[in-house]
């Protein structure tokens, strides 16, 4: 177990607090040697060993928000928590989960929502008894042990469906969709700024990685994606889900390697867009 954030992350990612006026965008994933991120039919595969998985949890604490596409919620049912970093350090906060879900297909049975509701319920109990976890102090995003899932959807989603999801405990953030019915990657910085979030770690899946990696530069000419962090596991998956969907591997941006770290069996590469 690492007892400090990996030095290469501390040295190469901007120190917090990040500036919500220009949110830092990190794109990250774990892949096999044959560039797959999941198995046949999208089945989840444990690619990262214990050391690089712990690094991923450190990375989560180093960002204000963590973002996944709706298919990842449906297929993986992730928790997106930080249970692998020391739990007694009040400065290590979990990121705000953000889900890109144009049609608001979010399943109300999602683990990320039931964990939030369970935590919210227990917190109300603890408030009554004036007993708190050392990290259970609200910041602008809410209490800091488990955070409410925030779902970014199209502003065309019927109000009844939005209300249903909010009644179930999530926060719904309606926004304008692009011509393909998606949330435009280039709209994300403004969405983050409006939510007071200064940085985001984008974890996948394949369609989300592809659209952010292919995205045009920001209005100021700088790349939309500031950092790319890839865990490469020494295994082959064969049939499965690629880092980007089939046919979308043209026009990916050139990358500049900043650092490669060996973590247990895995190689972790930190890159920037040239
Ligand atoms: N190894 C790893 O590091 C990781 C692996 N995964 C794997 O990835 C797989 C899921 O990937 P995938 O099926 O591609 O789904 P995604 O998780 O990438 O979700 C894609 C969906 O997100 C919505 N969306 C909103 N905005 C955009 C946008 N700008 N670009 C693209 N999509 C957008 C769309 O929903 P709609 O269709 O409703 O419009 C789209 O279909 C799973 O098998 C999971 O295991 C996931 C994360 C990390
Ligand atoms: N870093 C990393 N290594 C792997 O081997 C993985 N399969 C993933 N997947 C991502 O992590 C999410 C699961 O997170 P929780 O453990 O539930 O917190 C999964 O949905 C993918 O986004 N990542």
UniProtKB/TrEMBL annotation:
Keyword Oxidoreductase: yes
Pathway, per record: Cofactor biosynthesis; riboflavin biosynthesis
Any single GO BP term: riboflavin biosynthetic process
Domain Bacterial bifunctional deaminase-reductase C-terminal span(s) in chain numbering: 23-268
Superkingdom in the source lineage: Eukaryota
Reaction it catalyzes: 2,5-diamino-6-(1-D-ribitylamino)pyrimidin-4(3H)-one 5'-phosphate + NADP(+) = 2,5-diamino-6-(1-D-ribosylamino)pyrimidin-4(3H)-one 5'-phosphate + NADPH + H(+); 2,5-diamino-6-(1-D-ribitylamino)pyrimidin-4(3H)-one 5'-phosphate + NAD(+) = 2,5-diamino-6-(1-D-ribosylamino)pyrimidin-4(3H)-one 5'-phosphate + NADH + H(+)
A GO term for molecular function: 5-amino-6-(5-phosphoribosylamino)uracil reductase activity
Alphabetical keyword list: NADP, Oxidoreductase, Riboflavin biosynthesis
EC number: 1.1.1.302
Gene3D superfamilies reported in the protein's UniProt record: Dihydrofolate Reductase, subunit A
Pfam (any one): RibD_C
UniProt keyword Cytoplasm present: no
Record function comment: Catalyzes an early step in riboflavin biosynthesis, the NADPH-dependent reduction of the ribose side chain of 2,5-diamino-6-ribosylamino-4(3H)-pyrimidinone 5'-phosphate, yielding 2,5-diamino-6-ribitylamino-4(3H)-pyrimidinone 5'-phosphate.
Record family assignment: Belongs to the HTP reductase family.
PANTHER family (alphabetical): 2,5-DIAMINO-6-RIBOSYLAMINO-4(3H)-PYRIMIDINONE 5'-PHOSPHATE REDUCTASE (PTHR38011:SF7), DIHYDROFOLATE REDUCTASE FAMILY PROTEIN (AFU_ORTHOLOGUE AFUA_8G06820) (PTHR38011)
Protein name: 2,5-diamino-6-ribosylamino-4(3H)-pyrimidinone 5'-phosphate reductase
Organism of provenance: Saitozyma podzolica
